[in-house]
Write a structure and sequence with these properties.
The chain has no helices and 15 strands. The protein is mainly β.
Length: about 300
């Protein structure tokens, strides 16, 4: 199984060839600066994250499509018990069909400690999934945090995700929908939409080294992240003029891909807030015919706790 190309965001452009986009999350809230220690001190905390995708693609990629280079997400954390948190995540991002704000994940996170090490187990469910794509998406992860010395610590996370994801792609008049196996049909003389569903599995990991520089555990961190998965993609035309003789599912293809990132930034901690400016750079990616591209990300996270 190849590493999943999940954090892919593509910048606005003219779509001359409607190659199938990939249903990767616009703003995946997990496996980024994730720790096995509770990051807030009272019963509740709220956080927001703003991220910008670079306009320069990874060399060798070349797909122009609709989408926004800027994304915004929100998080709410509530302490149900001394070792158990309830978490909710919202995404707000632009796409070819407009800007939407939706509840993307609801999760439980359980903490425990053994000597000098901290551990956590997280179970998250995607409440937006419905009967059209089967049982909701699930994300299960194990996280550990260890103090190597008084000035150095490490965070590790490993998770598995059951993917049941869908999205809609706009195809302008005069463009022929294309998959990894070639054109799906003749060119249509009317604009249309194509619905894509992805059914499959993903693997995620994150390994971070942190240099602590004050008593509040503020630190400079460098992390390596990898994501990989395999899906079955199902394409359905919603155009006024069908692009195939059969108006039902007209495309079923297998897809596997992935990306390895390096992420670095500063985590600035104070009792009432946390600030994390960061940058993520894709080191290597895999995708059929390199038809999608991961891009450098710059972002800023603020937590009020």
């Amino acid at each position: 199984m190849l590493w999943l190309l999940s954090a892919v965001l593509l910048l606005p452009g003219t779509v001359y060839e409607a190659r199938a986009q990939r249903p990767f999350p616009v703003n995946d809230p997990f496996y980024r600066s994730e720790t096995a220690r509770r990051t807030f001190h009272d019963g509740i905390a709220a956080a927001g994250e703003l991220a910008y995708r670079s306009s320069a693609p990874v060399p060798g990629a070349g797909l122009a499509t609709s989408g926004s280079p800027v994304s915004l997400s929100f998080r709410l954390h509530y302490a149900l018990a001394r070792q158990l948190d309830l978490n909710a995540y919202w995404d707000a991002a632009g796409s070819a069909t407009g800007t939407t704000v939706m509840l993307s994940w609801v999760g439980l996170k359980y903490y425990w400690s053994v000597e000098e090490s901290d551990y956590a187990f997280r179970l998250a469910v995607d409440p937006a999934s419905d009967g059209r794509v089967g049982f909701p998406q699930l994300d299960v992860a194990f996280i550990s945090t260890k103090a190597l010395t008084p000035l150095f610590s490490t965070d590790f996370a490993f998770g598995v995700r059951r993917v049941r994801k869908g999205f809609r792609q706009f195809v302008p008049a005069g463009a022929a929908p294309v998959t990894d196996e070639g054109p799906l049909s003749e060119v249509s003389d009317q604009s249309q939409f194509i619905d894509t569903r992805a059914l499959g599995m993903e693997l995620h990991f994150m390994w971070s080294y942190n240099t602590i520089f004050d008593p509040a555990r503020s630190n400079v961190f460098v992390a390596v992240m990898g994501e990989g998965g395999q899906y079955e993609l199902i394409e359905t035309s919603l155009g006024a003029v069908p692009v195939t003789k059969d108006e039902e599912d007209f495309g079923r293809t297998d897809y596997s891909g992935g990306v390895v990132w390096i992420r670095s930034g500063i985590e600035f901690n104070r009792p009432s807030y946390q600030i994390i400016p960061f940058a993520s750079l894709p080191l290597k990616q895999w995708a059929p015919e390199e038809d999608s591209d991961a891009r450098m990300q710059l972002g800023f996270r603020l937590m009020v706790r």
